[in-house]
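Justification of computing resources. Each target in the renewal requires a structure prediction run like the one illustrated here; the chain below, 321 residues long, is used simply to show the kind of job we budget for.
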Amino acid sequence: MGTVLIEKDRCKGCGLCVQACPSHVLAMSHEINTRGYFFPLVEHPDDCNGCRYCVLVCPDVAVQVEHKGKTTAAPEALNDLSMHYCPGCTHGVIHRLVAEAIDALGIRERTVGVAPVGCSVLAYEYFNCDMHEASHGRAMAVATGIKRGRPDLIVFSYQGDGDLASIGMAETIHTANRGEKITVIFVNNAIYGMTGGQMAPTTLPGQVASTCPLGRDVALAGYPIRIVELLKELRTPAYLARVSVHDPKAIIQARKAIKTAFQHQVAGTCFSLVEILSTCPTGWGLMPYEACGWLAEHMIPYYPLGEFKNPEQGVVKETER
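Resulting structure tokens:
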């Protein structure tokens, strides 16, 4: 039996932990915390099996589980701070996965992250490693400069879809084509989240955004760009994968891919990029759990998950839905 531990004042009341629990251990309180949010309660403690699904899906690192004498803990590479992201935004989940990979590989003291403009503009606050701010779209250029100047460092960029696939597309293509030995964490939520919910390069056909209130018209705006498929066609060796963080099973796969991407940099193998399908409940106008369902139903068919390029295997693999 497991014991769920909830730090209620970190919680933003998204309810994703309640939805993810297969044993229905958790329920939302009717009280609010010091930040003004409802928070989860352990309603049926004896039913906890220690699966830690609640830990995996929590975007605010507010849930831990004690099971068989071991308690989950926030990664050392993640600062103990509340994040600014909207309730239910899965940026927080991705932050934790990146930090876990850094810890697992023992590289924190020589890691440098690069955060450009976008929802992740304050990522330097959250990662417990050296961080560098970059102009909009220029994170890979900055990361390239750091890595070339100090090849001994582990350098990663953390970028959104508008940043990486629009204003920074030239940097994306040429950084990958040169085979720069950096790791790119690409968060694709199919919309410009920070600046008002405009159509992004990855917005789906027919998807509503503030600049296309009738839905994306491919006759006018073209089709959404599939970044990993685009980069896959380059001859330069690279590690390319697409994962998602919409449910616990997907998060476990995302954790593996992110760690693999960093391992390639540690080994000096190749450029690596992991595209992560993420939710934007605010920009999509959905409740957090609805946003996870919308991602699974609409984004994954257009953006299939899998490992698309791996120098060690030389094959393309797409996972089943």
